[in-house]
Amino acid sequence: MTGALKTEAVVIRSLRYGEADRILHLYTPHRGRIAAIAKGVRRSKSRFGGRLEPYFRLHMVLYQGRSELLTVTSADTITGYPRLREDGAAIDSAARACDAVARMFETADPHPGVFALLCNELALLDAGAGGPRTHATHANQLAFRLKLLLAAGLAPQLAGCASCGEADHLVAFSGAAGGVVCSACEAGGFALGEAAHAFMTGALGRALADVPEADELALRQAERAISETVEHHGHIRLRAASAR
Amino acid sequence: MYAPPIQRLITELGKLPGVGARTAQRLAMHILRASPQDAAALAEAIREVKERIGLCEVCFNFADEPRCRICADERRDAGVICVVEEAGDVIPVERTHEFRGRYHVLGGALSPIDGVDPGDLKIGELYRRVSDPAEPIREVVLATNSTTTGEATALHIADTLRERSPDVVVTRLASGLPVGGDLEYADEVTLGKAFAGRRRL
User: Fold this and answer.
1) Claim to verify: residue B117 and residue B161 sit in the same structural domain
2) Distance between the two ends of chain A, CA-based, in angstroms?
3) What is the DSSP string of B84-106?
4) B173 touches A at CB < 8 Å
């Protein structure tokens, strides 16, 4: 299919290419992840200016030729999340969030919910940047990843044992079983404390802006549970959720 | 299609940035038509630059001696360091004739997603330079690119220097409208920064 493609998009990655071009990885609501070339964008007088930097949310017009790589023909800013760009921790969190989306949703399948979730995450990081109510936290990153798992159909089973259905004595987590497991089925899993279990349940049920608090041990256990689930069922290896 | 030596030359030229197959062919034909002296001078220049050029022991700019010409120049202000991502960024700053201090080349920008951490850049060497009592530093100018990774690098260095060397002034290059550019085409973040950094006339 050749011709113009009009779409909303978030720039999730930007790579230098050639003399003054950039290859952009874009996440769109109805075309999933797409790659496009922005010609001459690194020149200071480029008509795109700084709009095509990572984490910009844009209205874009792209030309689709025979190549898989589309060409950016116009870009209008919806929001550039300017405060986020002045806070190192927020930039780091935004990069990790975009990387998680890029790895878990790398096809052109439409996932409007994931697009909305990513925009919501960037907006939260922007709103809290540099202030005491920052969302650039380990807990926020894990909650975001749990919601991505939900959108991918890989949400871990947390209500009862993923092997036998037992609702009590849930003491471990098994990526292979796809959720928490009871003391009788824990072989092959790792110990998951009550705090980590409560954090995962709370994070899945609540809005991103209202992520439950948890201590660092619980967060590390939750991250391991998320990583093992994604690796076992999605065959994807995610990068660490925080700089540590 | 070509004799093997010509094909080899085209292949090698094609590895240069911005040079595609057609341009590589044209350059190869130009070299074939050039006089033996001109072709030998080109080959010798490439050989010499690879043999003689290394990194300056102070700032990591390209140098043909242990110290680059800027670090060896006593007339430069040793109390001000301009931090850039790549050695190629020194030239545009020098062209402005606005800066008379010395440089520090990081060798890239921080990008944890691409696996580029502070240990992969010459950031530790910058901190050691700034805290060296033998050459007191008054100001560090962060002139990393105005990209997301460049900003992240500048923020990281500024935070660390504030803790380690509180007496050193850390500044960042201003962002705003390019001279000769139309306001109509400025993006919102650039224009926002231009407003935030406006000055009294």
Assistant:
1) yes
2) 45
3) ESSGGGHHHHHHHT---EEEEE-
4) no
What is the rounded CA–CA span in Å between residue B23 and residue B31? 12
Nearest CA in chain A to B152: A88
Q: Tell me the chain A residues in contact with residue B155 when contact means C-beta distances shorter than 8 Å.
A: 86-88, 91
Nearest CA in chain B to A51: B187
Domain that holds residue B20: 4-52
Asked whether this complex has an ipTM greater than 0.85, the answer is no
Per-residue model confidence as pLDDT tens digits over A17-56: 888 899 999 999 999 999 999 999 988 778 888 889 999 9
**Least CB–CB distance from A77: residue in B146, B159, B187:** B187
Concatenate the DSSP letters of all residues of B169-197 into one string: EEEE----PPTT--GGG--HHHHHHHHHT
Contact B152 A47 (CB under 8 A): no
Give the pLDDT confidence score for residue A244 in this predicted structure.
Answer: 60
Average pLDDT over residues B175-196: 82
How is chain A split into domains, by residue range?
Answer: 3-79, 156-244
Q: Which CATH architecture has domain A3-79?
A: Beta Barrel (2.40)
**pLDDT tens per residue across span B38-58:** 999 999 999 999 999 999 999
Full-model pTM: 0.84
Give the best residue of A52, A86, A92, A239 to mutate against chain B (max B CB count within 10 A).
Answer: A92
Which of B96, B187, B191 would you mutate first to test chain A, the one with the most A CBs within 10 A?
B187
End-to-end CA distance of chain B: 66
Do both B47 and B104 map to the same domain? no
